[in-house]
Amino acid sequence: MAAGAAAGCAWDPTVSLRLGHPALVLLERCRGAGPFRAILAHLLRLGLAFETFPMSRLLHFATAVSSPRLTREADLLFRHFTPRPNLYIYNLMLSASAAAAAGDSTTSSPRRAVALYMSMLASSVHPDERTFLALLRSVERLSAGRQVHAHVVTSGFHSRAYLRNSLIKMYLDAGDVETAELMFRSTPVPDTVSFNIMLSGYVNEGCTAKALRFFCDAALRGIGVDHYTAVALLTCCGRLKDTLLGRSVHGVVIRRVDRGDWGLILMNALLDMYAKCGEMDAAMRVFGEADEKDGISWNTMVAGFVNAGKLDLACKYFFEAPSRDLVSWNALLAGFARYRDFSAVIKLFDDMLASRVNPDKVTAVTLISAAATNGSLNHGRSIHGWVVKGFGLQDAFLASALVDMYCKCGNVKGGHSVFEKALYRDVTLWTAMISGLAFNGHGTEALDLYWKMQAEDVTPNGVTLLAVLSACSHAGLLDEGCRIFDAMKQRYNIEPGIEHFGCMVDLFARSGRLTDALALARRMPMRPSRSIWGSILNASLACQNTEVAEIASEELLHLDPAEEGGYVLLSNLYAAGGHWNHSDKVRQNMERKGVRKSVGASNFES
């Protein structure tokens, strides 16, 4: 090393610049920021810091060894004390920028990386594979990633396997699955690493079915399975809630992956898959056989039992866990809230605060939803005060939950007050207020708020439009409802769902336009639900329209032959019109099919 250094123009043998210099030896043994700064001052006094090799060791310590990283010091040294940076120094600084970009949401780090790379090219320092790997870790936009890819090709590094895999990952992370697929298919000999990158990319992009097909194709090509493959496949099975497929993957793991290579991540993926599939007995067996468990393992069990409705076992694992974090507290709180045990929610929340666990916005939404479900306005107001104290008025999502809570408790004025005080109103908050007004019978006010939302250039979504159509339906605003329904596809490019069609059918039926309601139900692109035919039947009964009532009843009986409501309503309709023979036939048909009339069940819910 000393001989190589002496041969370079940056070395001056008269001042004994060599690797064994005492200051450099101390730097190699340095373990903290304080000693580093002392050594830096010493090197500056000796004039050694201006030489390339000592500076490279200083920057190496500041950017790669020190914990925490001395990013500011490294940047100052590079800009003011490194007149002739070489490839090694440029790569150190690029890697530091990449690390900063990974932990920073601002654009300063990616811009810094680009500036370093441009400076490097301007200084006629040629990049290598490490340069491009650092640049790829820094990019945030797909356009920048494509430019890096172009430089990789022009620099002749496109055949390097590790760099190629990094490019595939970059495209997948940016959502450009098509380009990633092209790169993978052009790989001369795909290995397990590139296969796992593609598989994980499909999973992360939500392409579950494509991920499974890709795995089958790769298995036929003889590409091996490791624990990374297994984790991606188990994630697919959990999303699909496919227990049989999950058990098959579990079997593949047992056969092809050595038990010593399983690791905690794979074990937790198995737990998560079985929990999402509702197979908590299998999850318990995996949990019991695990050599190592962490907080994620315990939280997965708690959440799994909560989702399965087994709150007793959820509590058992919750209290047996070596430690309880915010995730576990929130999971159990959500369980009690889901099953409407409001007193347990409040008690658990008090225990959470007593344990010095700081609640977050998920906790707040759970508490607000629990108060809304329970209809407890006093508790809701207390929770509202705590939310404002802890999170302020700037969070639109929390404001939406509060608006929903007040409206479900019948206090529309309180909900509107939250809406007006919110510092930022997104489509979710507007939708919550419109829904709350509609829910409480203020259809005209809900429609007025919708027009105000339009005036403020907030684009509605499908839920917003459903709330407005519901308001129009209950307020009898037929023309406005038709106009909004037509605008869904034409103006907002939103395909109406069965709920939107249901509101329109109900609106036509309530307005006495039974023929239009029937026509819309028949031309829907999906099969009408029981509630849609029920609204037509109820309206036809109110209008004494026997013909439409017969059609709606027949459709209801076709959907659910065992439901007595349709029979009873049709029989009563015939009887009210004096058609006793028809009424008796309906009753006889009901008895012949073994359908029994429930006590007091003479109305059909629309």
Automatic annotation (TrEMBL):
Keyword Transit peptide among UniProt keywords: yes
InterPro entries, sorted: E_motif (IPR046848), PPR_At4g14850-like_plant (IPR046960), PPR_rpt (IPR002885), TPR-like_helical_dom_sf (IPR011990)
PPR repeat start-end pairs: 191-225, 325-359, 426-460
Origin: domain of life: Eukaryota
Keyword Lipid biosynthesis: no
Keywords, alphabetical: Repeat, Transit peptide
PANTHER family xrefs: DYW DOMAIN-CONTAINING PROTEIN, PENTATRICOPEPTIDE REPEAT-CONTAINING PROTEIN
Name assigned to this protein: Pentatricopeptide repeat-containing protein
Native organism: Urochloa decumbens
